[in-house]
Amino acid sequence: GAVVSQHPSWVICKSGTSVKIECRSLDFQATTMFWYRQFPKQSLMLMATSNEGSKATYEQGVEKDKFLINHASLTLSTLTVTSAHPEDSSFYICSARDATSAYNEQFFGPGTRLTVL
Amino acid sequence: TQLLEQSPQFLSIQEGENLTVYCNSSSVFSSLQWYRQEPGEGPVLLVTVVTGGEVKKLKRLTFQFGDARKDSSLHITAAQPGDTGLYLCAGARYGGATNKLIFGTGTLLAVQP
Are B66 and B8 contacting, i.e. CB atoms less than 8 angstroms apart? Predict the structure, then answer.
């Protein structure tokens, strides 16, 4: 149980284009999903909290107009990197919180490697 | 501000050795999780501790939550190459909004055969 998928697993795009990443909870409902960014050999940096049916909550310093988040259903959240630039290249990971868990456990997707040329 | 400090930051050991990773904070957490992440993959939940002083074992891994719920440790006995990875602790704050977790700085472990 508690499986989270991400698509695509990797993407290469040209500077100025937009890229959409999907995060799905496969066997449970996730009212809350989280988007993280990770640099090599470093910990996770929370970008935003995605709440089903409402606006995402962004962490300080994260541009909401650049990183668009949509959580249209209890099993799907999407992150769109708009007008991507080389500095946006990174490993993006989503997680989903099992609403039935009492301890805020998060289950992570396999990540998406974004490379912007 | 990084609320959860892990030590050591990097650790390279030989197969069969024992090791301990520490996760420290000045804040109190309602629960704390440990994750392991392999290169190019997402973190995998290893354990959740919720009670001060709690000890949990997962095969050769022993997790302990501090009495004051501010710190935690992970001890690995007879490490194997398959234990290689990035170990992350993550805490949930009392009264924290939106159920988000505070992640530690990470410990990168390499176990040489």
Answer: no
